[in-house]
């Protein structure tokens, strides 16, 4: 039976007509409709035209096709009737399941991991981002050679170091993939070392680093743009931001801080991507404070919060790292829901309700972040020679100048600053 493609089965076609399938095994904290909507949104993010969304109840996954034979037949009928080209399974498929489903349905099949990798591959803009995506994709693809490249199963003779007598083409390709992955890891290790040097330099400066984290499409980039005046891509799309962006910001009492916009998280984020994006996510691990941006208007906002916290734990973020939850998209709530939300937020010191789109609550969030970062700062009285312009500038840059006056031909400053900054100032030559 033909599988319906005349092209390379691993080539992804933008604009493909698709059915989204959620095999409901009762293990998810979300309901089936929410899972289908999210996966349809992921597919739409790379131009797939979702024609059908199907939830399939599963008591026991089938080793060969995941879903039962009757369910496969019904799905195949849907594919034929609507002339669909793609089936997106919101589940992890084994290579054998993927191959069998493609044969039975007569269309291309991708699973959740494959879909997310396609999005990341299309969105990565920096050289580092492309390296990370390629590494993750190769890791995923290595186990699927038997599915995708069955035409390479032939044997071939050896050509020097490229393969000994009797080595199959597929074994050679697996080895080439492993070699390429090793080279990519070396390059990413260099990226990681460079990031560490940059971080060390910032810590010596020392400027606090604030990282925006959150579920994909929660509004991080919109908030980042509002706080920094930047023009980072901020659209109503899942995974609109992949490559990390750093900008300098000023906060009350803090002349300079670094704000980092990071890739959005998602439930069941492929392990290949968590590993590949480790260098990028190190900005989050080393941050002085996290702002967890939540789409508070989303019906699954609590499940999304749990997913983000899970990924933060997986990448090694300490539970002691100070953090705020920015309950975003207030503007999308009806009046009753909004009032209830504001009451709930008022009872917590670590929550700030905001609308990154309209700006509501953002100033209060900035003040709360500044207050948290300057906790432990003390007030110092510092006397300078009036001609010491460099010293005066240093105080303004690294502390909050509360008062300035002249006494006995000396300039006297009342300054609030961190004890470590005061010690650095006192030790200057």
Provide a descriptive summary of the structure in words.
- The strands form 3 sheets. The chain has a 6-stranded mixed β-sheet, with helices on both faces.
- Helix 4 (about 110-125) packs antiparallel against helix 5 (about 125-140) and helix 5 (about 125-140) packs antiparallel against helix 7.
- The chain contains 15 helices and 13 strands.
- Mean pLDDT is about 80; it is low at about 1-10 and about 145-165.
- With about 425 residues, it is of the alpha/beta class.
In summary, what is this structure?
The chain has about 425 residues and is α/β, with parallel strands linked by helices.
Shape: elongated
- The helix content, as a percent range, equals 40-55%
Task: Please outline the major beta sheet.
Answer: 6 strands, mixed
Integer-rounded radius of gyration: 27 Å
Which terms would index this structure?
single chain; 429 residues; alpha/beta; 6-stranded mixed β-sheet; 4-stranded parallel β-sheet; disordered N terminus
